[in-house]
Queue: 3 jobs
Job 1
Amino acid sequence: MIANLYGGGGVEAVLFDMDGLLVDTEPLWYEVETEVVERLGGTWGRAHQERLVGGSMRSTVAYILEVTGADVPPETVAGWMLEGMRSRLARGVELMPGADELLTEVRDAGLRTGLVTSSGRVLADAVLGTIGAGRFDVVVTGDDVARHKPDPEPYLRAARLLGLPPGRCVALEDSPNGVAAATAAGCAVVAVPSVLPVEEAPGRLVVGSLKELSVERLRALFPDPEPPSRIP
């Protein structure tokens, strides 16, 4: 049970991934990646995108340069990527099914909230402009950490900013990299797979959609510890 793995005591915060979990940006990333790779003279496919889900801009750019063999500065490629995503996000972004309702329910229940994304601050701010920055108590982006998912640093930072132990937080993720990061940090984990599958594992709940989640179900991940046995 998750309580045994993470110490129980009840959930106090819900930490949300962004791309592919809260907002349907993975198709946009695929468009931008394809555009940039073709600009560099290469070709791109779904198998390439799957290598990058849940990763950072740095790892994305490094992989694109590896695939294309192009002799272009990484910062130039990153600039093309950011501009491509900015222009698309400016047209609006679609929330994933159940995301708006779950965010509202979590906030109404008095739980703390955090956004923990591998995307940079510029892109996170663009998304927050659509879904509402005020819905999150803390925001951790790829620009705020030295090590990115699957390293636990992003989730450890979010918990620290909230003033909570990671074991009082439940992380909602869509990718294996994100799940690995949250697990390593000591959070309870709910996986809602998007591009890549996420396997069932002890202490991990896997669902098909955010519509399957509620505050009651999140709280059920942290059952109250059994009272001590009475001494006769």
Job 2
Amino acid sequence: MKALRIPRSPKVILGLIILGFFLILMIVGPYLAPFSPDDTSFAPLLSPSMHHWFGTTSLGQDIFSQTLVGARATMIVALVAGLVATTLSIVVGVSAGYISGYTDDGLSLISNVFLALPGLPLLIVIDSYLPTTSRSNSLIIGLIISLTGWAWGARVLRAQTMSLRNRDFVESSRIIGEKRLRIMFSEIAPNLLPILASSLLFTILYSIGAYVTLAYIGLTSTSVWNWGTMLFWAQSNNAPLSGEWYWFIPPGICIALVGTSLALLNFGIDEFINPRLRAGGLSSRQRRRLGLPRRQRLGVTPVRRGAPNPRRAPVPEPVNS
């Protein structure tokens, strides 16, 4: 079974490497920036060179420094929004699924309302009422984004909790007099960890897209550098039409890489929790050693089966009379 552990999956390893790189960049990026992102003392619209790795903007700002500094705000907002939204999903989904009754009806109604509301227009409306100082606060922006990203995960957790609340281990805890909160978060919640991990990854991905979108259309403070702000200034100065590809491609690649890492991690989690997908993360050598085909046939999912037990007696063949 060692080859099927989730850390051995190439998708998970690659996803962890990419995501870990950007998490480190979130911490040390502003300190590694060779120049201030607001420094306008350089020549405008310089192509990438050894002195300016990603070139300069129309105001003479170093794009490489902006990319490094912008990683912090983008990742902080994504992590804050993802963690808060996942916490709300756990509380609402598990409570509604286990308690049922009027509690389930009320919490489900709230979840359905937030699912029906369009996320981006709601974010725009809420952001427009914020004071100018709050628009530059990454924590506040992350909390606002989390309000529109928790409902889907809560609905999924509610359905899974309803399928677990009548299991034997839950019934035994209820019989011996365990409190309701302990049953929900000590007995049921640990069995939802794969779903929670997948929900967290997709919520973080949604948060990055929402924050970049808000910054791209100019609703966040332009004094805080993030990858969406870089795209906003590139679009405002017609960089795509003028051929200044080095202005908008670096932040776009960073956003795509973070999204790719989260998708790879989610694929690895799917392979880990779904027995019919576990062979999907094996290399050709591991497939050959386990007796699986090297290439997966279309429409057929390879499954690793255990070796026959030598102590088990063979089943006799029926004898025709």
Job 3
Amino acid sequence: MALIVEIIIGLLILMLLVVAHEFGHAIIARRNGVVVEEFGVGFPPSFWSKKLKNGILLTLNWLPLGGFVKMRGEYDAASKKGDYGAATFLGKTKILLAGVVVNWLVAIVLLTGLAVVGLPKVIPNQVTIPSDTTVITKPVEISVIMKNYPADKAGLKTGDKVVRLAGQLTPTISRLTELTKKYKGQNVMIVYDRNGTEYSQQVDLRNSNDGNYLGVGLNQSELIKATWSAPIVGVASTVQFTWLTIQGIGDLFSNLVSGLVMQFSSNTSVRQQASSDLTSASNSVSGPIGILGMIFPAAVKAGPTQLVFLTAIVSISLAVMNILPIPALDGGRWFVMTFYKISKKKLTKEREEKIQTIGFSILMGLVLLVTFADVSKLF
């Protein structure tokens, strides 16, 4: 039941981010003289609709997978007044990029808010203003429990925060690791915090050479807090995470292409490297199932700070994905429009529909591929 609630929360957040993206398109379209015929929350079939005073049909739809905006004459060759196609090149550029800008703005607002209350530090060189930064180190937390190992036998659970071991404080992962090594093979007392309440339990540490005497995976997060520099940190963090997302996509495609090319090699070691590259590509990306079934539930369990942080990162990811030059995405539509303008060729409705259809097919193929990878990870 809890997992279903977590998935619903993730679904609502994703939908709101997409609706915000589409809202950006709608606002800038109207400001550039384009008639917006319909603004939909979710995808058809519709269960409620209302004609607004400004003439836009607002619809609420049954499939909670995002949203859409329908503009009149939504192809480049349309020429009637109020058509999308009749807008200037600059106007169409603004309309196409407006959704991306809104996603970036959402991320900036969320990351600025987190900078005030505590922004998770997830990379070593994360942007801060040293003179206005306080770093808060959270307690050592158990992130993985190995079955039939000492922690599991003692009843510890993921999310428990280790406070003391053998009567000594464990403020860092290195200190806890040092203590488990010191007392390996012995029965010691472990004190841990679970949901704000401290518990103590005897645990028999393993006496082995693999270094995992307690049988756990550990995590320790740091939070960055700022005051007057919070907006600067919000903007700079959005830029930084945008660049990291672009790098991640570049690495993904690099591993994918090199892996596919090397698969045809007759050299066994090369094929093994190809398999490694393809596995790396598969593991470094998540689709709808991965985001809703694994990532969002984990963030919900971790608390509101992690959930808001993940929402900001997903918003940045939506912005980056939509500027890629893939037809059917905003960046792809702009690229096609710009190419035909520069080449001084006419982009007919039929030609544009064909390009967008091919792009959409490729996009759906990638979604299916990533979904298959997500399902494989689940099982």
